[in-house]
Amino acid sequence: MYEKSYPNKRFKHTIQFLQKHTSSSESILDLGIVNPFSTIMQEHDYSVENTKGEDIDLDTTTIENSDTDIVTAFEIFEHLLSPFTVLKAIKSDKLVASVPLKLWFSSAYRSKTDMLDRHYHEFEDWQFDWLLEKAGWKIIDREKWTNPTKKIGIRPILRWFTPRYYIVYAERV
After folding, report:
1. What are phi and psi of 130, to 5 degrees?
2. Residue 111: what pLDDT?
3. What gap in Å lies between CA 107 and CA 110, rounded to an integer?
């Protein structure tokens, strides 16, 4: 069903990790606007609502007013100036979040045409763990995976061995 709709293995890993730690009977607030992965969660019988496109660095009202069971944040925290503020605003007791990891051989992502589509943070795993713990979350499980490409060159070869994505399941302390 969904194999062909995945642009890469990131979505496959993400849905498997989400299913490992949550039930489709639990409601989800997905940080960020409706996106292809929101649809994938719905295809797996999750009830998903998204934030509305507001700048959640400045306006956490939707997050604060949500009564969902789980908050998901897939590749969103690296775009925020202050992910700590957002993490503190979450009322749900469960969080599933992923971030791209900082790669020593590749500079942070920066779109030349879209001012919002840039990475302010690219985390090492310990930095993301520390951020979550400081914001009042206890990490229950974590995984990393690579994101190889079929291109030729030194960086594409390194992507076969170097983890690019990091996902955690955390609960409010």
Report:
1. -65, -45
2. 62
3. 9
Are residues 10 and 35 in contact, defined by beta-carbon separation less than 8 angstroms?
A: no
H, E, C per residue of the chain: CCHHHCCCHHHHHHHHHHHHHCCCCCEEEECCCCCHHHHHHHHCCCEEEECCCCCCCCCCHHHHHCCCCEEEEECCHHHCCCHHHHHHHCCCCEEEEEEEECCCCCCCCECCCCCCCECCCCECHHHHHHHHHHCCEEEEEEEEECCCCCCCCHHHHHHCCCCCEEEEEEEEC
The pTM for the full model equals: 0.88
Residue 71 and residue 63: Cα distance in Å, rounded?
9
Counted domains in the chain: 1
pLDDT under 70 in the chain at which residues?
1-8, 104-119
The CATH number for 76's domain is: 3.40.50.150
Tell me which residue range forms the domain holding 133. Answer: 3-172
